[in-house]
């Protein structure tokens, strides 16, 4: 599919179904046709309406404008090449009551629909308005000063039509990617598909996706595993304390390996194997990187004084001689989402907003970030408060809302998640919304210790493994949330509480917040750590408080 057509409609807040897309793409100038359709729809629908363009709507528009649906504009038809879905997990025979993942278990239809509907939640109160021009520092920046590369960004690669075929493809992609990590391990190199396991096998090795984890009445663990060929139950005995403890960290929809023996219809597990993280070689740095997140500009609880001190420090105008020396070495500033507070994110949020327009919030962000010296590269990923779609992966914040920030020559927007290289320092940026699900699901995990959650996600090699819970995930043709490449740094936010751990050479950083406790946080007893800024100073982790 051409991302240009999809994103043209997406930027206008309009969805396109598969038949409509195929009809539009046949035309000689599909982008012009798309623009005309969008203009026509804008006259007939309210901005808050959820509009889905169908094939019949395309035909009707062409007929009303003097074109036959069979005679494309310009008189030329493009050759249509239909790509068949890959074999294996995909299956078109779907029951109406229960939607099957062939070889990968079953889905609850209501849960799927709820998750798809959540991806549209951002179409609520975000309204773009004209505002006074913000005065910014717009000095020219020589890009050669930065050895900055975007290694992975889903902003123009993210597409789903929301149909069942896409959901199956999504889980197929996840399974195959993580299976390929696992089968490289010596103890799983000779694994067998579930359907090929024989009753008489002494040692069984399988790779599967977790369908369910439950505790028996005798306090053992049963793990329901599935692959493309079938399903099987795995028993973890509670007397195997080390393995039992590991089983308590398992979550639905993650992919893992099991070694054990078969007993009847069960596998008795002797080992549970995650994809894991190889030790990362230390990256030598003669520069420093600053990490922040959850600034929440526009909120009455935004700590502007603290943030202004931070700006003064990074510009070399504030702090002790040692702190100013650190500031002088800063080359990159990485922001892991929620740069603004957004609109309509939680109940009664408007009562805590000083800026009640999303565009004006970004204008104020541009005024503040525009004061940062121009020889610092600023990289910003969206969070769930930003003007990006709710479902992950989130595309970069669109220029439509953050135009003033896009004018800053030293600032780059990326998706959530995104993998970037900062002079060779591979940094995985993820806002961290899946921490809610992990804290709720896994025993011993909490928002206060997000470093433990980050460690577990690295071991699972997936940023957001649980599908269908509080974190909306877009069921795309490819699962972009698999951690394909091990970074030097994993930078997260969302929980508003600083944490740090160095795990197998990877710096796991949560950068806290510049927002004091909100009324919403008081309900859930979330006590933020405010104005505590992590800095990787020439390879050494430090925290500065403002």
Automatic annotation (TrEMBL):
Q: Which GO terms describe its biological process?
A: DNA catabolic process; DNA strand elongation involved in DNA replication
Q: What positions does the domain DNA polymerase alpha/delta/epsilon subunit B occupy?
A: 289-494
What this protein catalyses is: DNA(n) + a 2'-deoxyribonucleoside 5'-triphosphate = DNA(n+1) + diphosphate; Exonucleolytic cleavage in the 3'- to 5'-direction to yield nucleoside 5'-phosphates
The answer to keyword Disulfide bond applying to this record is no
**Keywords noted in UniProt:** DNA replication, DNA-binding, DNA-directed DNA polymerase, Exonuclease, Hydrolase, Multifunctional enzyme, Nuclease, Nucleotidyltransferase, Transferase
UniProt entry tagged with the keyword tRNA processing: no
Q: Name one GO cellular component term.
A: DNA polymerase complex
Q: Which InterPro entries match?
A: DNA_pol_a/d/e_bsu, DNA_pol_delta/II_ssu, Metallo-depent_PP-like, Pol2_small_arc
- Superkingdom, according to UniProt? Archaea
Which ranges does the record mark as transmembrane?
none
According to the UniProt entry, its GO molecular function terms are: DNA binding; DNA-directed DNA polymerase activity; single-stranded DNA 3'-5' DNA exonuclease activity
In the Enzyme Commission scheme, what number(s) does this protein have?
2.7.7.7, 3.1.11.1
The UniProt entry, under PANTHER family, shows:
DNA POLYMERASE DELTA SUBUNIT 2
Main role? Possesses two activities: a DNA synthesis (polymerase) and an exonucleolytic activity that degrades single-stranded DNA in the 3' to 5' direction. Has a template-primer preference which is characteristic of a replicative DNA polymerase.
The record's NCBIfam families line, in alphabetical order, gives: PRK04036.1-3, PRK04036.1-5
Annotated family:
Belongs to the DNA polymerase delta/II small subunit family.
Assembly state and interactors?
Answer: Heterodimer of a large subunit and a small subunit.
State what protein this is by name.
DNA polymerase II small subunit
Q: Which gene encodes it?
A: polB
């Amino acid at each position: 599919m051409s991302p240009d057509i999809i994103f043209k409609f997406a930027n206008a807040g309009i969805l396109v179904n598969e038949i409509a897309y195929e009809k539009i793409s046949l035309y000689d100038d599909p982008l012009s046709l798309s623009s005309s359709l969008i203009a026509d729809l804008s006259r007939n629908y309210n901005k808050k309406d959820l509009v889905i363009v169908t094939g019949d709507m395309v035909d009707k528009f062409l007929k009303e404008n003097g074109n036959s649906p069979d005679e494309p504009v310009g008189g030329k038809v493009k050759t249509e090449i239909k790509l068949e879905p890959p074999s294996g997990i995909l299956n078109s025979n779907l029951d109406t009551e229960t939607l099957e993942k062939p070889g990968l278990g079953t889905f609850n239809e209501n849960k799927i629909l709820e998750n798809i509907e959540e991806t549209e939640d951002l179409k609520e109160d975000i309204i773009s308005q004209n505002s006074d021009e913000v005065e910014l520092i717009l000095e020219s920046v020589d890009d050669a000063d930065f050895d900055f590369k975007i290694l992975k960004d889903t902003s123009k690669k993210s597409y789903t039509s929301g149909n069942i075929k896409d959901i199956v493809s999504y889980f197929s992609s996840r399974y195959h990617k993580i299976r390929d990590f696992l089968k490289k391990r010596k103890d799983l190199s000779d694994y067998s598909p579930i359907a090929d396991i024989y009753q008489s096998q002494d040692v069984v090795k399988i790779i599967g996706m977790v369908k369910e984890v439950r505790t028996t009445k005798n306090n053992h663990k049963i793990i329901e595993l599935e692959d493309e060929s079938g399903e099987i139950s795995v028993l973890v005995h509670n007397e195997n304390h080390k393995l039992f403890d590991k089983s308590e960290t398992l979550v639905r929809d993650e992919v893992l390996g099991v070694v054990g023996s078969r007993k009847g219809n069960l596998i008795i597990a002797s080992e549970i194997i995650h994809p894991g993280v190889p030790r990362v070689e230390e990256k030598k740095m003669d520069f420093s990187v600053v990490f922040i997140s959850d600034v929440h500009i526009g909120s009455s609880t935004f700590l502007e004084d603290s943030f202004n001190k931070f700006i003064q420090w990074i510009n070399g105008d504030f702090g002790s001689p040692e702190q100013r020396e650190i500031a002088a070495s800063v080359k990159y500033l990485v922001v892991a989402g929620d740069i603004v507070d957004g609109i309509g994110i939680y109940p009664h949020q408007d009562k805590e907003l000083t800026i009640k327009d999303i565009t004006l919030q970004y204008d104020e962000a541009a005024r503040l970030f525009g004061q940062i010296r121009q020889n610092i590269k600023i990289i910003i990923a969206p969070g769930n408060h930003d003007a990006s779609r709710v479902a992950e992966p989130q595309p970069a914040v669109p220029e439509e809302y953050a135009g003033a920030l896009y004018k800053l020559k030293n600032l780059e927007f990326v998706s959530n998640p995104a993998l970037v290289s900062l002079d060779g320092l591979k940094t995985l940026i993820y806002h961290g919304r899946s921490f809610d699900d992990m804290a709720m699901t896994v025993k011993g995990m909490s928002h206060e210790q997000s470093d433990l959650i980050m460690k577990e996600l690295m071991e699972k090699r997936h940023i957001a493994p649980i599908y269908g819970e509080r974190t909306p995930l877009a069921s795309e043709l490819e699962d972009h949330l698999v951690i394909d490449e091990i970074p030097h740094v994993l930078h997260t936010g969302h929980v508003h509480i600083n944490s740090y751990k160095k795990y197998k050479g990877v710096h796991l950083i949560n950068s806290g917040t510049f927002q004091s406790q909100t009324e919403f946080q008081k309900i859930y007893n979330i006590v933020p750590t405010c104005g505590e800024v992590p800095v990787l100073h020439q390879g050494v982790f430090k925290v500065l408080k403002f």
